[in-house]
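hey all, quick one before standup. I had two proteins in the batch that finished overnight and I want to keep them in one place so we stop losing track of which output belongs to which input. First protein below, input sequence then structure tokens straight from the run.
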Amino acid sequence: MTSADIRTRYDKLKETINYYRTQYHVYDREEIPESARDSLMHELAELERQHPELIAPDSPTQRVAGVPLPQFKKVKHAVAQWSFNDVFSPEEVRDFDARTKRFLKEHGIHGQTIDYVCELKIDGLKIVFTYEKGVLTTAATRGDGVIGEDVTHNVRTIEAVPLSLSRPIDITVEGEVWMSTKNLDVLNAQQKKLGKPLYANPRNVAAGSIRQLDPKIAAARKLDVFIYDVAQTSEQFPKTQWEELEYLRELGFKVNHNAELAHGVEDVIAFWEKWKKRGRHQEYWIDGIVLKVNEKKFEDVLGYTGKAPRFAVAFKFPAEQVTTLVEDIVFQVGRTGVITPVAHLRPVSVAGTTVSRATLHNEDEIKRLDVRIGDTVILQKAGDVIPDIVQVLTDLRTGREKKFVWPTRIAECGGDGRVERIPGQAAWRCVDVDSFAVLRRKFHLFVGRSALDIVGCGKKTIDQLLEVGLIQNFDDLFTLTRGDVEGLPGFAEVSAQKLIDAIQKARVAQLPRLITGLSIPHVGEETATLLAQHFKTIGDVESATEEELNDIGGIGNIVSAAIVAWFRNKDNRALVKRLQAVLAIKNDAYRARDSSSRALPLAGQTFVLTGTLLSLSREEAKEKLRVLGADVSSSVSKKTTAVIAGENPGSKFTDAQKLGVAILSEQAFLALTNK
């Protein structure tokens, strides 16, 4: 970028971050996720590191955000309240450790290893508590770090907050007020009954409850608290951070028991790795850890910058939502000829992995988001889900972004490249559904892990076989000989024979895998499994009517119509007949409709999974359900028994709410299946 571009980007980032931080800290409005704000802040800090001449006094990196609301009494903090700098990776926390050692060395303190206290970073609202002669006198929000809001009347309603201490001392402590996920569920159930909007997360509820003028509202929310720091005390100050936590417990404060004393930065990273895997699988939400130098005498030497302490830092978990730039929008042609727009992104780390692509789904989604080439966007990746653009930050537009126009021709569609919108749908497809691009993707699926799983027959090999005309239909694979393959680039006698052996091994195929590999529209692994459970042979599936298919839980009208239409096609029926001649098709999934099947506890029930499960994989969850006689579907309908919702549930969660389908938490699902 030119100097002018850098200055424009810096000013836009600064202005946008200040706006979002004000909405979040002052008015408790989370217009974009915290992880997305962190991502913008990280980019701003990196620009300032590379171009220190840009740093402005009003930069969000130079001050603590937030000012008190006018309707509350103002409280001046006896001790200034700081916020922590953030780091996001083991490399950055090692850099922090190295800087700390260098600073101490410059002040005559030498040593190879620094001890740190690691604490969980609770996702709640920071409160400063003041006690005089052991009695709570004031509880205030952090505010701008100097002036906060007096919320004592609400904090007194929290049972975990001691109104008097174990001895009559003067002390100021800091802590985090939070709401449990269980109480959030109870509150949302009440909201649903009243027809009111549901709360997105417990942090916002905790903040909103503390800022109510009526203490009865806060009392009804059943908030909780953890105390983690002493700002000042009339007694002798503890010599270490670890002793400080014990000191707080001794006085009667609730302290999180998951803190650990780490001997060096590698122990810190191990603690972070452990809790990163556990994520939010607690009664409270956590978004990282906080590490503090243990020795108070070292903390005194390290001191503070203009914004944050040098002796502590927040080590954030990998964000599931971050910001990045859209560099281009390209097309991907699927196995059925359906065209998917894909955003090429500036590479960014999200949920622990670096991504540079995100699906835009269809033309309507591009219009809804109004995403343009050059836009700054919020990118989401939950668990193993494909990255998804969830929001465009239009405030960061410079006027040089390119509006996207859907084309009438796409080269990958073959022939003249014409495309058409599918009637009644948001999707577009190639007019020539037999184009090379579509055929190639069908073969990729057919030989892939979810279908026949032919080892050594990857995408590159399939493309070679298609390009030289050795295969045109799926059954052609099983007519290949070693001599056919040997002349291809990369294939000698031994490697050619290995490929032929792998293809011959795949002649014994399970019915659900074969159905998956046929590229029937709307039929994936889950639907293929349902079909194999209810129909003994591929011939039975071929002759099934829409009514029979609709009677299967998890298969709706659209899917059943697509299956019947596919088998009506004479070319498809001929293909199935040829495959039956070259394959031994088994069906271990078939479940006879006898008394033993009907006796299974979940027989006749259909479940849908959404979000990330923390205690087991999605495949393990499906197996639990199927063993108990249940069907597993990929879509929600009125026939669905329940939706099992893990972390970060998707559109299926919303569909269940609209249809009035029961929603089970992971804990409820485990209780059901274990029982």
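OK second protein, same deal, sequence then tokens:
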Amino acid sequence: MKLRIEDKHEYLEKVYASWLGKLIGIRLGSPVEGWSHEKIMADFGDKEGYLVDYDIYAADDDSNGPLFFVRALLDEEELTTENIGDCFLNYLQEYRGFFWWGGVGVSTEHTAYENLKNGIKAPKSGSVEQNGQAIAEQIGGQIFSDCWGYVAGYDIDLAKKLAAMASSVTHDRCGIEGGIFVATAIALAMQKDDIHEVIDEALEYLNKDLEYYQVAKDIIRFYKENKTDWQECLKYIQDNYGYDKYPGVCHIIPNTALMVMAMCYGENDFDKTLTMLNRSGWDTDCNCGNVGSIMGALLGLDGIDEKWIRPINDIVNASSAIGYLNIQTVSDSAALFTKLAYKLHGMEVDYEPFELPYATKGIRTKEGNITVGDNKLYVEAKDAYKYVYYLSDDLYDARYDPQFSPFLYPGDKVIIDIEGGKNISTYVGDCEGKISFQKQVADNKLIIEMPLRKNVTIHKAGIISDEPYYIKDIQIERKASLDYDFKAYPLDHYGPRYGGDYMSNIRGFVEHSGTWKIEEGLLGISAEHALISSGAYGEIYEHIEWEFIPEQGKEHMLVFNMQGYLHHYKLGLNDDSLVLIEKNKQERIICSYPLVWEEGVVHKLKIDKKEKMLEVLFDEKEYFFPYIELKDLFGITLGKDCIDRTISLSLY
């Protein structure tokens, strides 16, 4: 098949069904991740459907990878393995969130990240030469590779190429083969109607001399000789390809054997395939996520029962270094994957916000119904609302350490194209429970303005109506007006982390690195470096004011225009200078002034955007820097062995 503009909705639905299948599999497998088949059956027996009602599922490594690694296609003019490695450094927090930080030499991704951070470029960062075969052949190269099938646009060779590049950042040998298998199987499944054809053809893109291919073929052989009893195949896998036969915490081969088994015995049936696979044990969320993605691509939305889809409510959360991107929707991310597929084929497409079934954008009701059809969201509820930021009671748990920044800020405005309703009003609730009611309706446009208050973090925004209505479009106008007083600033306590301890978060901020506390201000402590940030892409402001005490060390700087850890500007104290630095993977000093400053005393730094320059006041003395637009994420960064206490921060 060939990707064509006129088929854009059809391709979007295929990607959407595949991505939903991935998320369904993760949600199904998460409660029993790492369990044996015997324990799963003893605890849950033949229970159908989801084993746990997660409601809002916090985040998971299996979905983090596809959401963020494809952003290399947005950020880079030319996609290379090295650039995908840079994507890791740009979007990941150091040593928390995103994936399992189990230690260098234990966790494959942790090992590769440390290599990248220390200047060992991809693909050497994931190679057997660098890390050893056991680390290189764990499961991660496979579980993150669905996205390369989504963006391939029916091009199987392209799916293979992209998956091989991305998997080699962290893995090698069978670890790369797994990535290729998943991506090519998804791209093939979008064009076929039988899972056996998909498996057979996907295997032809693999290295036949490696164990991955040989084990998959062995399971297919067993199936053809014993088609009636999948449990006999499970026992064969346990006896011949079990965890006890392979090194490391989560080797790719045992889990791949289960995946091939479930697809063979599943008879092209989504429910049967995923239920069988989940009951088989081992790395259940990873296996069910990959197979759910392949089956979703094969069967489309019509082949996935609503019982799997509706509990997700179009919500997919993440745990990256970009806090507002940690609150996303399934439909918007599917649209992004699809746009990238067309981009790779030299075409541009766009989509309506409610073009996809189940695209509720995470809007919720306590009573009533929300449905999608004819490119509109139909709301039959007195009160419908959406979380802008999550508090602990909103989430089931703190799996994979999600830290959130709100995706709406004081000063922002939401414009809703609405049809119908009666006695309509809107409201905004902050994290302290304060509700501000508004009523702005003109020409079928409903306007919600985010309130301006010190230390306010928006929790949710909603609509109240006496009669049903349709939402046809939602637009956001971003112009931040923020005022933080950190002398008494709240923490949010999210409960148990994946490792068993408890997670807390400085409200609305994401800690990339270093240690950050609320102690008579926002206290930052760095050994090597430290960075904390908030904000959203597209947010604009014209003035920044920072009151702080540099208690130790030589580098204390404001961050702005931040796209990620590798791409931002910073302005502040650096040794004996007031300096403006551009970071675009490497740092470049744009402008610098000699400056005498003191440790342990309060300093004030103000930045004003003028027509042709930045006017900067440091302790009321004026300096002029080259013009740079103030926008996107903002934060504070510290250099080596620094301690800094921020008293207040304002942007408007």
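Flagging for whoever picks this up: The chain has a mean pLDDT of 97. Residues 363-480 form a domain with the Jelly Rolls fold (CATH 2.60.120).
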